[in-house]
TrEMBL record:
Protein name, UniProt field: Probable oxidoreductase
Pfam families reported for this sequence: adh_short (PF00106)
Family the entry assigns: Belongs to the short-chain dehydrogenases/reductases (SDR) family.
Xref: PANTHER family: NAD(P)-BINDING ROSSMANN-FOLD SUPERFAMILY PROTEIN, RETINOL DEHYDROGENASE
GO MF annotation terms: oxidoreductase activity
Keywords: Oxidoreductase
């Protein structure tokens, strides 16, 4: 690649000199944090962004500056989407199809983290149902709108290392609930979904990748006790010190969203397709050593193609649709 980026690169760094006029992008979760910044950066470079959010009034307030920053013909429209209710997901997909307008990029950004035990409107465990199954149905239902050359960016996390998916008990019907195990399962599912979506669509020129944005202070951590969060950071710093690395530092939101726009717009499609990216580069697979939450690396179970196919089949069974 002509230019390399890293953990401190921002969305504006990554998109410097990039003209997105004529491009159409769907970003989920545009009522706060990374989704808003992703939309802003893309619209500022000329893309027309369709932002999806559960609370449209909140999204309107959060994205006022996105419209103000739009340039070169870029803009923003909002559409209602509650990923925790498949009726809403399907209605959103139907509304997007009704316009008949294609997409060049879909950023599956919205999600929840470490929420208390609960269920979505359709009876799925909250994190697996919201983070994975909601996006699984939405993206597959609009896949026909993704034109050749387009990409899917699935927001994952280093938290995938907390747990592999459990295809026998995805809703914790028989397993004691742990909020971070549930989060890990859902983030592993986000990666595996990208792997299988990429396999199914790359022959028609549509690629998919999963990204880890890094540690950022956003609303995602709203369910976490501050003392618990600090204890986690203390543990991370102990691991980093053992590796001879400096202590943990939060990324800014523009730094956190940079890998999404890098993987979706700038990186060569063949380089990122079916892969896991972080800090604006493709991550290495790490199978044989301990890695802290903040260390780079993806676990092999999250990229295993057979595992990805099995999750796809299980997801179809759970949502009652075949794609």
């Amino acid at each position: 690649m002509a230019e390399s980026f890293n953990a401190t690169s921002t969305t504006d760094d990554v998109l410097a000199g990039v003209d997105l006029r004529g491009k159409r992008v769907l970003v989920t979760g545009v009522s706060a944090g990374l989704g808003v910044e992703t939309a802003r950066a893309l619209a500022a470079h000329g893309a027309h962004v369709v932002g999806a959010a559960r609370d449209l009034a909140k999204a309107e307030r959060a994205t006022a500056h996105v419209r103000a920053a739009a340039a070169h013909g870029g803009g923003l429209d909002l559409i209602e989407l509650d990923l925790a209710a498949l009726a809403s997901v399907r209605a959103c997909a139907n509304a997007l199809h009704a316009t008949g307008e294609p997409f060049d990029l879909v950023v599956a950004n919205a999600g929840v983290m470490a929420s208390p035990f609960g269920h979505t409107a359709d009876g799925f465990e909250t994190q697996f149902g919201t983070n994975h199954l909601g996006h699984f149905v939405l993206v597959n239902r609009i896949a026909a709108l993704m034109r050749p050359g387009s990409r899917l960016v699935s927001l994952a996390s280093s938290g995938h290392r907390f747990a592999d998916v459990d295809l026998d008990d995805p809703n914790f019907d028989h397993t004691p609930y742990d909020p971070f195990v549930a989060y890990g399962r859902s983030k592993t599912a986000n990666i595996l979904f990208a792997v299988e979506f990429d396999r199914r669509h790359k022959d028609r020129g549509v690629r998919a990748t999963a990204v880890h944005p890094g540690g950022i202070r956003t609303e995602l951590a709203r369910y976490m006790d501050p003392a618990h969060l600090q204890a986690m950071i203390d543990g991370i710093n102990a691991d980093l010190a053992a590796e001879g690395r400096p202590p943990f530092a939060w990324k800014t939101i523009p730094q956190g969203a940079a890998t999404s726009v890098w993987a979706g717009i700038v990186a060569p499609a063949a380089e990122v397709g079916g892969r896991y990216c972080e800090n604006c580069h493709v991550s290495e697979v790490v199978a044989d050593r301990k890695i802290s939450v903040m260390s780079e690396g993806v676990r092999p179970y999250a990229l295993d193609p057979e595992h990805a196919r099995a999750l796809w089949a299980k997801s179809e069974d759970m949502v009652g649709e075949t794609f």
